[in-house]
Amino acid sequence: MESLDLDPAFALHRGGKLEVRSTVPVRDADDLSLAYTPGVARVCTAIADNPDLVNDYTWVSNVVAVVSDGTAVLGLGDIGPAAAMPVMEGKALLFKQFAGVDAVPICIDCTDVDAIVETVVRLAPSFGGINLEDISAPRCFEVEERLRALLDIPVFHDDQHGTAIVVLAALRNAARLTGRSLGELRAVVAGAGASGVAVSRMLLNAGIGDIAVSDSKGVIHAGREDLNPVKWALARDTNKSGLSGSTEQALAGADVFVGLSGSTVSEQAIAGMSPDSIVFALSNPTPEVDPAVAARHARVVATGRSDYPNQINNVLAFPGVFRGALDVRATTITENMKVAAADALAAVVGDDLAESYVIPSPFDTRVAPAVIAAVAQQAREDGVARK
Question: Catalytic: which of 36, 96, 217, 240?
Answer without folding.
Answer: 36
